[in-house]
Design goal:
This protein has 265 residues and is mostly helical. The chain has a single domain, classed as Glycerol uptake facilitator protein (Up-down Bundle), CATH 1.20.1080. 75% of the residues lie in helices and 0% in strands. The protein is built from 11 helices and no strands. Helix 2 packs across helix 6, helix 6 packs parallel to helix 10 and helix 7 crosses helix 10. The radius of gyration is 19 Å and the shape is globular.
Amino acid sequence: MASEPHPLDVVPPARIAVLVEEVGVRKVGLGFVETFTLGVLAGAFIAFGAMFYTVVITGSELGFGPTRLLGGVAFSLGLVLVIVGGAELFTGNSLIVLARASGRITTAALLRNWVIVWCGNLAGALGTALLVHFSGILSLGDGAVAAKALSLADAKLALGPMEAFTRGILCNILVCLAVWMCFAAHNVAGKVLVIIFPITAFVVLGFEHSVANMYLIPVAMLQSGAFDMTGLAANLALVTAGNVVGGGVLVALIYWLIYRRPHSG
């Protein structure tokens, strides 16, 4: 009789690659309504993490590093909700590249998923930004939260094209590694734990997440009444492109080359 696996055992990377590929095939097979709706949920979930982050770092006297560390842990809520609650996040779906590299799906199917999920994420994040604006939450702390939200958005819009693009690459390396490691966990607690460290790291280091920016920039614009749509579009385009390279090429494609590439002989 085979012995039961030890509860601390994790799924090995080669097996994770197979699982990621299978999940990618299933994701692109979802219908439009399911894909878009799950995308809306993910946009809202990431927005919850972003608003939690904004409040947590407001008025902190812990110092630069510790404040960002605490904020990063708070922001991790977003991906925890996506993974455990179930939703379709554009940045995480960069891993579907692995299924495309194996020839299990077409390029058209991959791009269809990305476009639908990205639009769903945008709708969810914008909808949440509107709810936050009309709820008056930003008035917390005698307006300090609103001031922090404005400063966060200003900093993002002030990034140069190369900064926004490369920060997008670095961000999604960590996000996709967090999603990748979730496949190694056997329970919810394990998934939460492997999410917190990479997500906290990208927040502390100031990397750029396209879906988070779909909330953080618009909510500040709603607060200020100044709508820099050109700046928002440029930021999202550059960060999205960076996220695709970071997750799709530097995580998914690299792991495909290691574990799923056909070997001759």
